[in-house]
Amino acid sequence: MANNNTLISVQDLKVYFRSSHECARAVDGVSFEVRKEETVCLVGESGCGKTVSALSILGLIPIPPGEIAGGRILFQGKNLLELDEEDMQKIRGNRIAMVFQEPLTSLNPVFTIEDQIGEAVRIHKNIGAGELRDCCIKLLKDVGIPSPVQRLKDYPHQLSGGQRQRVMIAMALACDPDLIIADEPTTALDVTVQAQILQLLKSIQKTRSMSVLYITHDLGVVANIADRVYVMYSGIVTEQGNTAQIFYDARHPYTQGLLASLPSRSKRGKRLYSIPGTVPNPAYKPEGCPFHPRCPHAISTCSREHPEMCDYSKAHLARCPVLFESANGYK
Amino acid sequence: MISFIGRSVIQKIITLFFVSIVSFLIIHIAPGKPSQVDPMNPKFTPEVVERFQKEFHLDKPLHVQYFYFYKDLFTGETISWKDNQSVINKIWERFLNSLPLFIVGTIITWTLSFPIGIRSAIFRGQFYDRSATFLSYLLISIPGFFFAYVLIIFVVNQFHVPVIGMETFGIGEGASLPHIFMDRIWHLLLPSMLGATGGIAVLSRYVRSQMLEVEGQDYIRTARAKGLPPEQVHYKHALRNALLPFVTMFGLILPGLIGGSVIIESIFSWPGMGRMAYEAILARDYPVILTVNFVSAVLVLAGTFISDLLYLIVDPRIRL
């Protein structure tokens, strides 16, 4: 559990969205932790609860309809879920910053780059106007934007997609946070720009010795950037381990299915594998293991009992007792 | 920028030319005649009718009449057929009467709609929002003339003040200046409030929906993720974007100066532009109708031009 090295630890987090006639259990008991100076990836398909988990760390879930139904989020010894709005504001953007998916819509179209970056600095630090400007220029330089002085007066629509995302990252870096949450920051960008942004995040994480919680559905990105990986499915973590364990020794049928559906050189010319079925509706999840209707290894108990995490080796856990028993049976 | 202004001024002049032709035609094609040239009118002998027709070029073909009319308009010599007074002077006098009503009404509408609409959006679904919604639908559905009479009865019974007209009849003699001033204000209050109620109901709903749409945008989430307090998120990041469409509307309220409100001016016997235009139509007083028509066309075009310019200033994405 939480040791001195842990920066943030999310424990059994439950986030529900209620409407008049149903309750969508978007996040249903998720636990993960990010240690100091490491990059952790939350992986899963759309709607599995990764973004909701990240947003609830910053208290950005709209309540109502959202509702934090349980769990704790420990950050530097404090439970973020118990902080009031004012204390939360001191953490947002200051200790924990976030980079969003769509850089165009995530920047306010009517304010200049300088306004938007400067605001992030000013809100948390007591700083003079001239100093603020220098600070903005330095941040833009740090994220690799050419001729930053000229860019200060630009509006978001005058920048390219990659530059906009760099501005978002500069905003996130404004107060030198301990943790950056990046919610699919490269999804809206083309592949070459994507590689540049990943490179940038990696180098920033090293030079500033921060932690990064990276949310993505792209396994290629995960392999490139992650130290440790949490695979999520339908609001729960199904498998966790370091990158090598997940990619070379996947133990959960869902992870195995995901990896099997990646294109690779050896599968050239063949049909790609796809996991049959679709992700369950978060309001009507199947009983027992949420993956059992699509699972090739499912047995009768899978539809009755909620699966427990099974410990394979050093911090490599998978939520599939069936495979765990058969694997241990061989030994 | 300059080329945009030049281009749009030329376009607007061309539009104005067509508007003048169409409105001239419509007035003359419409059934009915000015009473002065109506052969059924027992007050005029055929000789008088003929003289009148000659004097006002009514015996000439339409395009010649058109030419005479707009020549008079631009030289400021148009006179009303009803009372032989200069139309420009008549309109100017009525315009000065309508102006305070319009200004006070507009100020009330805009200063109340925005706080109501913005607060409704921020507290959406809560008590404040629900009561604001209920009130605005109530105000939209009550007919203006009915509401006006209810208010008049209430104010007169409750405060014993005269509310009809622009000032108390015969107040001019011997009253002190502050007294006259306050009397004017009293008379102004009720009609301008009535004129504003409908506007407040509609505009505050519109502000609310604009604000709600903006509050759901990604950049609002970004602003919150920066650690900004809610007031700054709402009133800086959201409001600035929600205001954009209203800048356009601000130019378009200019024509309201002329149209005013015929109903309210009639109920309160307010000698304003709307009532004058309405009476001119009933009397087939062509010069007055056409002049009012022309002036309002100019105001509409000027309004759209101003809103284009304002948009240019407030929205950084629009550049020429």
Describe this protein's structure.
The complex is a heterodimer of chains A (331) and B (320). In chain A, 33% of the residues lie in helices and 24% in strands. With 331 residues, chain A is α/β, with parallel strands linked by helices. Chain A has a single domain, classed as P-loop containing nucleotide triphosphate hydrolases (Rossmann fold, 3-Layer(aba) Sandwich). The radius of gyration of chain A is 21 Å and the shape is globular. Chain B has two domains: 53 residues, no CATH class; 199 residues, Orthogonal Bundle (MetI-like fold). The radius of gyration of chain B is 25 Å and the shape is globular. Chain B has 14 helices and no strands. Chain B is mostly helical. Chain B starts with a helix and ends in a 6-residue tail after the last helix. At the A-B interface, helix 2 of A face helix 8 and helix 9 of B.
- Order of helical and strand elements of chain B: HHHHHHHHHHHHHH
Number of separate domains of chain A: 1
Distance between the termini of chain B: 6 Å
Count of alpha and pi helical runs of chain B? 14
- List the quaternary state of the chains: heterodimer
| Largest sheet geometry of chain B | none
Classify the fold: give the CATH topology of the largest domain in chain B: MetI-like fold
CATH topology of chain A: Rossmann fold
Principal-axis shape of chain A equals globular
Give the tally of structural domains of chain B: 2
Please report the first level of CATH classification, the CATH class of chain A: Alpha Beta
